[in-house]
Amino acid sequence: TMDVLDVAWGDDDKVLASCSIDNTVLIWDVSTKSMTMTPKTTLRGHKNWVKGVAWDPTGRFLASAGEDRRVLVWRRDKNASSEFRVEADIRAPFEDVTAQTFFQRLSWAPDGRSLGVPNARKALQATACVLARGKWESVADLVGHRHPVTVVRFSPVLFHGEDDEDQPRSVVAIGGQDATVSVWTSARAKPLVVFRDCFGGAVSDLAWSRNGSLLCASSHDGSTCTFEFDVERDLGKRLSSSDARAHLDAAFAVEGGSNGLSLPNPAEITQQKKEPPKKKRIAPAPVAAPRVNVLKAKKKRIQPTPVGAPMAAAASPPVSPPRPR
């Protein structure tokens, strides 16, 4: 293979997917633990560089994003793990994309119902789109970044809904070429918090800790930044591992039967859904800004955008800087 742009572990830690500028996705069997390995399967479908890969939580689907303005969802044969076929060829959210990004890191929600994809575009605005599993249609666009989104990363933790009867909530972070990181939840139409001025270059990757309390971001400027959340206060009450597993099993009980865990549409694009959801009044509680630790040689002041303020709004009055961890 040629230069590799992204890799992703399968759900069983026995297979690894990689993508490259040779327009292919390779599947590797790492259970052999051999010093020299050859790919188990080569997936060909993209017509240009493949810039991101992600397995769904059960390993049934593999999604790949390419510079050909397409996302391919590959289904793995349950009887022959090395056999794949294209389940969906998704193009609509990317038809108006004019700018390319070096990476397109996509991510699945922890319950497997939704797929977050970067470098989409809606109404002349750069967005990250959320696709519903099964129908493979866009159910939400995360709007606000001034330049193309490079990475979408769901927290591995599911949270209780606003009411006991609600679907569990997911939390997702996105980063872009505007050197900005925003954090969203499926219970709100606006970001929980926006971090600006952390970097001097585009955000290249994001990673959550296993318990969802830490978010680490890296940038093309060679630096990293870590954000710490008080999970119960800032994000909500976590589902137990058994409850989270039950929701995952339910999502995949009927193959292709789930319509996805949809995030609410931002106000700027409420016209996207043909059938808007039932209106529901949610009184958002104020969310304190997470503590921020900037891992850089030079000192920088990080000013999170207050909760509820639009991402593209003018700079707000200075606030006290978050306490370093």
What does this 3D model show about the protein?
The chain is mainly beta. The chain has two helices and 20 strands. It has helices at 231-235, 241-251, and strands at 4-9, 15-20, 24-29, 41-44, 50-55, 61-66, 70-76, 84-90, 107-108, 114-122, 125-132, 138-143, 149-159, 169-176, 181-185, 193-195, 203-208, 214-219, 224-228, 291-295. The strands form five sheets. Strands 1-2-3-4 form a four-stranded antiparallel sheet, with no helix packed on it. The protein starts with a strand and ends in a 30-residue tail after the last strand.
Topology:
Layout: E1 4-9, E2 15-20, E3 24-29, E4 41-44, E5 50-55, E6 61-66, E7 70-76, E8 84-90, E9 107-108, E10 114-122, E11 125-132, E12 138-143, E13 149-159, E14 169-176, E15 181-185, E16 193-195, E17 203-208, E18 214-219, E19 224-228, H1 231-235, H2 241-251, E20 291-295
Antiparallel strand pairs: 1-2, 2-3, 3-4, 5-6, 6-7, 7-8, 9-10, 10-11, 11-12, 13-14, 14-15, 15-16, 17-18, 18-19, 19-20
